[in-house]
Specification:
about 290 residues; 23 strands
């Protein structure tokens, strides 16, 4: 029963409705300090994509919207061959439109108290935050929060459904490289010509900054589009979608590199255009001229 429940929770999250957010949520912690919030969604964590937002130094968890508590996961569940929950002590709340919200890293007493509750209201206090999950931030009081759609089997980036009160840092292009099918890498800023054929583009990762959406063009034709609005759950793996589905290992091949996309360079002079934008659609564009021979 516990295993089936956790598997269902892992197949989470929701898509954007046409023209706007499918559903609106508030912040899941009291006394939010947006300067300390970590936009950790879709980052690499233990060789898989992180499906959470992290709220360091948070003390109290609150319901992000009206709903009902459908499950409480405890840090040490004994379920045969099942392992300890990566969510630690967590509450799962069901909302409209097949959405659920997950509040991970609660302390044990709060999790126990929530087992007796059913309906909750927007902003209702859920309990104290501790350090029971596989969090990126190991200090006490690091809240891990997820939003998911059980029907679509995707995790949603919670930021797209929350108040836009955070100004993300500026995205910049640094260390953009192009890699051929044999694993040879070139610095795109100094490259002038390469053999025509398929290539993979990467950029150097920025600390605490990651593009929300990336588009790659060759000679004006869009060849790749990657969005961090949702993560998919498929065949036991968490994936991010571009022109194909990418695992965390493919998207983050090293600690300081992330994928921009795949391109096919034809013979002749080519212009590679890369556009990266944040969640507010503030964008930065870089152009590179490369000859294919």
């Amino acid at each position: 029963m516990k295993k089936n429940l956790f598997a269902k929770i892992a197949t989470t999250a929701a898509l954007m409705a046409i023209g706007g957010a499918l559903f609106s949520f508030g912040w899941p912690v009291k006394n939010l300090d947006t300067e300390k919030m970590v936009p950790s969604f879709a980052r690499n964590q233990r060789n898989r994509f992180n499906a959470s937002l992290t709220f360091p130094n948070a003390q109290k968890a609150v319901a992000a919207d009206n709903g009902k508590i459908i499950a409480v996961i405890t840090e040490h569940q004994n379920d045969g061959d099942w392992f300890e929950s990566p969510l630690g002590n967590a509450a799962i709340i069901s909302h409209n439109d097949d959405l659920i919200s997950v509040y991970a890293n609660l302390d044990a007493k709060s999790a126990l108290n929530l087992q007796e509750k059913f309906q909750v209201s927007d902003g209702q206090e859920l309990g104290d935050i501790a350090s029971s999950a596989w969090t990126e931030n190991t200090q006490s009081g690091a809240m891990e929060f997820q939003i998911a759609d059980t029907k679509a089997k995707t995790y949603i980036n919670p930021l797209i459904l929350m108040p836009r009160s955070i100004k993300p840092p500026r995205i910049y292009f640094d260390g953009v490289t192009i890699e051929n099918q044999f694993g040879r890498s070139y610095n795109l800023a100094t490259l002038r010509s390469v053999p025509a054929g398929p290539y993979t583009l990467y950029k150097k990762r920025q600390a605490n900054v990651s593009p929300h959406r990336v588009k790659v063009y060759v000679n004006g034709t869009e060849l790749e589009k990657i969005s961090k609005e949702v993560l998919k759950w498929q065949d036991g793996k968490i994936l991010i979608a571009g022109n194909k589905n990418y695992t965390s290992e493919q998207f983050y091949p090293s600690d300081d590199t992330e994928l921009l996309g795949h391109v096919l360079l034809p013979h002749g002079v080519n212009t590679i255009t890369i556009t990266a934008s944040d969640i507010h659609e503030n964008s930065v564009t870089a152009n590179y001229t490369i000859s294919g021979y």
